[in-house]
Each structure stands twice: as C-alpha cells, then as structure tokens.
Amino acid sequence: MLALDVGERRIGVAMSDDRGLLATPLTTVKAEPQARALAQIAALVQEHQVDELVLGLPLTLRGEIGPQAQVVQSFAAELEKVLRRAGKGTVPPLRFFDERLTSSAAEQMLRDLGIKPEKRKERLHEVAASIILQDYLDHTRNRTMND
Fold this sequence. Notes:
alpha/beta; Nucleotidyltransferase, domain 5
C-alpha cells in the first residue's frame, strides 16, 4: 500500500510493509511539472506492485472539503488516468483519508528527532504521508476488528 501527501511544491510518498501493519516514509516527489510527478508516482506504483493507494485529504477543521482538498481530488483524478494508461486499464483503488493536522505532527516529529530546519522541509511531506498511511492502516484494522 502506498500513501501520498500532496502539497503545492512536494508530494510525500510512504509505503506499508507487506502485512499492512507499519507505514514508513519512502520518498518525496517534486509536484511540478505535474506530468512528471504523476509519471514518477505511477512508476512507484508499478515498481512496488501497489494494491491500494491512499491520498491524504486536507479537510477543513469543520470536516468540509475546501480548496486544498479539491486540489487533491483533482490530482487524484489525473493520477487515476495516468495509472490506467500505464497499467493497461487496471488501477489500484484510490482512497481518500482525512489528514487534518498531519503536517503539524510530521513537523513536530522531525523537530523531536533533531532534524535541521532545512532538511525538515525536504522530508516533511514523506513523513506526513507515513502518518496518513499509519492512521489509515490503524483505522482499517480497528474497523475490521470491530465488525
């Protein structure tokens, strides 16, 4: 499973282990030009044989879809087109997951680890993607256990 934290300048990518228990940061992709970013993500999806893709959806604090969430939804639609072309029609399911405050949590985590400010910027989105993915994995596992 792969997760994306889509930002204006960078897109963080995280990946889960084979058992779907643990998320780890994978890489950061430059968001522009978008065609190149989409191609890089499609290549990662193929390389890692991704069966599910989670995109952080930055809802407003009231839980509504605002302008930034619309940007992520548009990006997901474009990614789906690229994946469809690259995978000859087979696309892993794309799931949106609430990512409110993950960037703040990622920033704090990097600060706590003693990462220098200039390096924090480079790693922020991939760490945020790993938080999104870990939250999604935990949520999915808890939902399954309670069913």
